[in-house]
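Deliverable D4.2, example record:
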Amino acid sequence: MCKGLAALPHTCLERAKEIKTKLGTLLQKPDSAIDFIIPYPEKPEKPPKAQKPSPQEALQWRDSLEKLLQNPYGLASFCSFLRSEFSEENAEFWVACEDYKKTKSPVKMAEKAKKIYEEFIQTEAPKEVNIDHFTKAVTMKNLVEPSPSSFDMAQKRIFALMEKDSLPRFVRSEFYQELIK
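Output generated by the structure prediction step:
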């Protein structure tokens, strides 16, 4: 017969309450429209006049999503392509995670973690990325105490998805074919 919560040690109950409180803070719905005014990121950060790559440099992108994403022009081209296919959330999530990792202040990190979670991870998020249940659960657990690696597993899954699915389509697209001429 189940003895219920009374059978658990007191320290377990206290820890469970702490975790519930911390997760509750992350999962709260915004109280005002102010929370919606500042989408993440505020505006796509385009470098001032990103230089068009040489055809040789652009050719390297077909074999390396990492090189593509590290190049400002490549990232902008890739995002434009994904937007044309209505699937830009993966690249936006990846960029948001890269920005998040550079955050030093624990307060700002917690704020950014909440925004990323609400925009990309939570069920029915406006730009929900396609990650499996296990990855989502691990990410939520990591957000109890945000750290630079909180989104690492989800970011790696999305990177792999873009590498396997989006990159080959991009390489066949007119966006890319114009770059390598």
